[in-house]
Structure formats: C-alpha cells, structure tokens
Write a structure and sequence with these properties.
This protein is mainly alpha-helical. The protein has helices at residues 16-29, 40-51, 61-66, 70-90, 96-107, 119-129, 132-147, 163-176, 178-197, 210-221, 229-233, 243-264, 270-290, 295-310, 316-327, 332-339, 351-386; strands at residues 6-11, 33-36, 111-114, 204-209. Strands 1-4-2-3 form a four-stranded parallel β-sheet, with helices on both faces. The longest helix is centred in the last third of the chain and has 36 residues, at 351-386.
C-alpha cells in the first residue's frame, strides 16, 4: 500500500451522513481495496443479516459459565445495547456505513479487507486491563443509563466526528478506565494501522470509526512504533505475585488447617463440620432461591456449596447457573429483548438475565457464608478451643 494513495474516512457508526460519505468516496475514487473496521465474525453476521439468513439463535449459557466468560458476555451485550439504542433513536441501523462500503466495493469490483481485531479478543483484553473498581463503575453507570429518562437532548452524531469533540470524549473515557482505553483505543489504533500496512494493493480506502482516525494516522506516519501483530492478539502473562488468587486460595485452606489442628489436639469436630456443611448448604440455597432460581437450581447450588468453599477454583453459582440454563431456553432474541428494556421490571422475564442473576446470587450467598457466618460461628470458636482461648 502506498501511503499517498490511502484515504481514511472517519465515520460515526450510526450515521446516515457517514454512510453516504463512504459510498460517494468509493464511487469517485474507485480504489483497488476497501478496508473496513470489521472482523470476520462481525462481517459474516452482517452478510447473513443482509441476505436474510437466519442463524441458529441458541446461546450456550452452559459454555459461557463453564468457560468463565460471563463478564465477556455481559460486556458484549452492554456494548450492543448502547449501539442499538443510539441507532434506534436516530432511525438508522448500526453498521450502516460498513454496509454502504461493502455494497459500493462490490459495485466497482474492489476487494474488501477486514482490518479489525476479533471483538472477543478485544473485549477480553479490555476486561483484563480494568480494575475491579473500574468494572463496577462502568457496569453501574451503564445500568443506570438504561433507565434514566432524564436526558432527552437530541443526539448530534455528526458532531461526534468533530476532532475537538472526539478529544473530549476520549479524555473522558481515559479518565474512567485507563486500562480499557489502552485496549479499546490505542491497541486497536495500532492493530488497524498494521492491518492497513499489510494490504499489498496500492490504492486503498479505509473506513473506520472517527475516534480511531487520528491514532491510525499517527501510527502510519511512524510505522516503527506499531507493536507486533502477535503481541496485539496474544495476552502476555502478567508478572508479579497474584495476591488476590493467593488470598482466595488461603481462605478455604485455612478452614481445612483449623479442622486438622483441632483433630490433632483431640478436640471433637463432628458438630463443627456439621455446622459448616449445614450453613454452607443453607446460604447457597438461599442465595440461589432469593435470586429467583427454580427449586432444582437452588438445591444443586446448596448441595455443592460446602465443596466449592473448600475448593478455590470452583463456584457454587456455576452449578446452580448451569442447572438453571438447562431449565430455561435461551436464545439470541433474549438479547434483543434486553436491548428493548425500559424499566428494571422488564428484565425479570428475560432468561439471560435470570440465569446470570442466579449465578451471582448463589455466589453472593456462599461468599456471605465464607467471609462472615462461618468464621464467626464455626472457625473462630474452634480456633479459640485449639489454643485455649
């Protein structure tokens, strides 16, 4: 690709003017390649949608829970909601400018290059780079925005392409979560720039979000600063001591050690073990049932709770959630229904929300047992007996 033959069009993803601008530029310049900010998965879904092909809309909640990708799924759903909501307000389908680019490229027989990183890799890296407080702040602000009808100002999407406005938005995003900003903006700027440089043809039009244009151009002007593409898709192992994992592992280990020490000192632990099992089962059951699970899911969550407390890599919520997922059919239309939610009460009828709630509720119940009830009712008294307190 020749730098002087490259045109980068910064678009708003829910803008009719952007869609028109893209088409006009492609028809006028007739490039050899039209590069678009999509990965293979999103491109295929867009093509299926245009062709009227209905995909299997069954969502494997079982796999989501088993692979511990609940956070990734929630983040993806939230971002889909935000884009769909804006598109609905503006009466334009999200991704219209990409569709316009694809259609125009086909009209002039230009090649199409997919230059974006896999969305799942991007979201996973973003979540890994966010602190617990950043995740909490993001999730809470998003939930409140779902139901906040106080802001009725008309959205000027074209103003969002203004460089000054973009700088303000980016700085605000950077302040909220520097880690996510690094992945969602700077890393993707580098990845998009690297993908463009790898296009062998000379004359290229690249269609990207307006927020990436400035960063891409900076990398293209200084290609030596672009990290290797391998490093942008593979997570580096974090150095340092994983204190959180160590602490979480020490909690159940300490329980076992206390029981063992009591046994060595000839102290009867039969009732202590029984209390441990009963309290664990009750709290796992209550956490599940109070979060709206079916009775079968609550029973499973309760039964596995004692084991999951001792084993730091297991969570009772996974088991109750998996049971709930088998009892509730979940389809992609449930995501669409989430996107149409106008008040909190509407979520209760959504199977995705209900299953995730069961996972969270069961784990919360077990956490209360582990951190509050069991220490005060079982382990501290037993510890005092061991050391003669």
């Amino acid at each position: 690709m020749k730098r002087e033959c490259l045109t980068i069009i910064g678009t708003a993803h829910v803008s009719q003017e952007s869609a028109d601008e893209v088409k006009n530029a492609i028809y006028e310049q007739e490039p050899e390649v039209v590069a678009i900010e999509l990965d293979k998965g999103r491109f295929q879904r867009l093509m299926n949608d245009l062709a009227g092909i209905e995909e299997d809309d069954t969502i494997s909640v079982t796999n989501i829970i088993k692979e511990n990708k609940v956070g990734l799924f929630v983040a993806s759903t939230v971002l889909s909601y935000i884009q769909s909501k804006i598109g609905e307000d503006l009466d334009i389908k999200p991704g219209s400018e990409m569709i316009a680019a694809i259609e125009a490229a086909k009209d002039i027989d230009a090649k199409i290059a997919l230059i974006d990183r896999d969305i799942n890799i991007t979201l996973e890296r973003a979540l890994n780079n966010m602190t617990f407080m950043e995740k909490t702040k993001f999730l809470s602000s998003t939930v409140f925005s779902f139901f906040d009808g106080s802001n009725e100002e008309e959205i000027d999407v074209e103003e969002l392409k203004n460089p000054d406005t973009l700088d303000e938005v980016m700085e605000y995003f950077k302040d909220i979560s520097p880690g996510a900003y690094e992945v969602l903006v700077k890393e993707r700027d580098a990845y998009l720039a690297g993908s463009i440089l790898n296009i062998p043809e000379d004359h290229v039009i690249a269609v990207v979000g307006a927020g990436h244009k400035k960063g891409i151009e900076k990398y293209l002007d200084n290609p030596s600063t672009i990290p290797s593409m391998y490093s942008l898709v593979n997570e580096e192992k974090k150095k340092g001591i994983p204190w959180l994992k160590i602490i979480l592992a020490l909690i159940p280990i300490s329980f076992v050690v206390i029981f063992f020490l009591a046994f060595l000192n000839g102290i009867s632990i039969q009732w202590n073990i029984l209390d441990f099992i009963i309290i664990s089962i009750i709290m796992g059951f209550l956490g599940s049932i109070l979060s709206g699970s079916k009775i079968q899911s609550a029973i499973v969550g309760g039964i596995v709770s004692p084991l999951t407390i001792i084993h730091p890599l297991l969570a009772a919520g996974w088991f109750s959630g998996l049971t709930e997922a088998k009892l509730r059919k979940v389809r992609k239309r449930d995501i669409d229904n989430i996107l149409k939610v106008e008040k909190l009460g509407d979520l209760w009828g959504n199977n995705i929300f209900r299953i995730l709630l069961v996972v969270i509720g069961t784990n919360l119940g077990v956490s209360i047992a582990t951190l509050i009830i069991l220490p005060s009712q079982v382990f501290i008294p037993l510890f005092l007996k061991i050391f003669g307190g």
